[in-house]
Design a protein that fits this description.
The structure is a homodimer.
Chain A lengths: L2 E7 L2 E6 L2 E3 L5 E3 L3 E6 L3 E9 L1 H20 L12 H25 L6 E9 L5 E5 L5 E3 L6 E5 L5 H7 L6 H18 L7 E7 L7 E5 L4 H19 L7
Antiparallel strand pairs in A: 1-2, 1-10, 2-11, 3-4, 5-6, 6-7, 7-8, 8-9, 11-12
Helix pairs in contact in A: 1-2, 3-4, 4-5
Keywords (chains A, B): Proteasome
Pfam families (chains A, B): Proteasome
InterPro entries (chains A, B): Ntn_hydrolases_N, Proteasome_sua/b, UCP009120_prtse
Amino acid sequence: MTYCVAVRVDQGLVMLSDTRTNAGMDNIARFRKSFTYSVPGERAITLMCSGNLSITQGVKAMLGRAIKDSAIDPEVETILNCPTMHRAAQIVGDAMCAMQGRYRSTIEMQGAAADASILIAGQRKGGKPRLYLIYSAGNFIEATEDTPFFQIGEHKYGKPILDRIIKRGTSLEDATKAVLVSMDSTLRSNLSVGMPLDLTVIERDAFDFRVRTRIEADNEEFQLLSHSWSAALRKGFEDLPNVLD
Amino acid sequence: MTYCVAVRVDQGLVMLSDTRTNAGMDNIARFRKSFTYSVPGERAITLMCSGNLSITQGVKAMLGRAIKDSAIDPEVETILNCPTMHRAAQIVGDAMCAMQGRYRSTIEMQGAAADASILIAGQRKGGKPRLYLIYSAGNFIEATEDTPFFQIGEHKYGKPILDRIIKRGTSLEDATKAVLVSMDSTLRSNLSVGMPLDLTVIERDAFDFRVRTRIEADNEEFQLLSHSWSAALRKGFEDLPNVLD
């Protein structure tokens, strides 16, 4: 399983993913699910992947190959030189379509699931911060003011806190805390989501990463946040009005 | 969809269910999912149902018919005269089996899902408070000290708070608050779970219901709890240590 969450607020973008994958309960591994691409000062993009790992790795390979090719032939279109974030989402969607077309029927013949989804979040100079969710069919939706966050993978455990906190006006600081708390709840309730975590934060109009870091299981800041949240929930719960009698 | 949660702590049993059912997004209705049975002073039992409504209503009809028949012929075994709660769970499981046997294949031929699950919680004189989860196949598991609560239906949104709060030593008061908070989170995140709610509380060795009530949408106590919890979460969130810089 996987849990990835991306938030678009007025101040910018926050992306967080876990690193656990499993093919059955007895085949657990660790794979990075967040990937960053940037032309510092011009654009910064984070991709996060869930679903069939061979499909998403294939998509990532296609995107990377195009970027390499464009160094030799600048005519090759890539997510780093395309005119808009919307076009970048299309390029990722096209790569998804190509991978699904190549492998989906044979994967399904084996009784496995080929579904995958990808979040792409970023900003290019001249545009606004954008966040898209790309489906297996290559189609995609964009986060709006009404729905300023997307989750892929095991999304339910960590959704209530996002529903309560995330609005378009939420600060980047609070959005970062909220995704970390959301991940903390998910880690507690689902064994197939696991540390370490990959966090990226893109501040509006910086066209670079403010944060691009791996949070290991022994990270003191994350542990402090997790313990503080536990204590706050416990205290809040204790202070609730009585309901019996 | 449905959300039912039942808790077994040292002090007794707490059961809470919503009332919304849906056959597709455009066919929403309200059905009671909690049903109580008692011989005051001897036993008190709550059943909660999720899944295919025709199946669970059929199970309930079989249990009710047996109770009626036993008034004429005391030899007829029912959940109200059987020797143990374990046997009561078996009786419910047998009724589930009978209903699945009668309709499952034709339901599935129509492309619908016949799965259902039932929680049965109660205590009879001479026994301990017991909580069982009965599956579609009629088999069942019992809640233990390690896992003192069961959820059926839309369980994920409301699980984190239960994971944090519910232990065998949790008071009946706190267990009641916890299931209400768990339901509140679920109501916020899933439209197919809806008010009103049915709450029952069985105190250990009372062999009767301490609480057996319907909580309507305008219930002031529940609204106060919901608002207090929102405020506590917001306050707890605001007080979290900073993570950026």
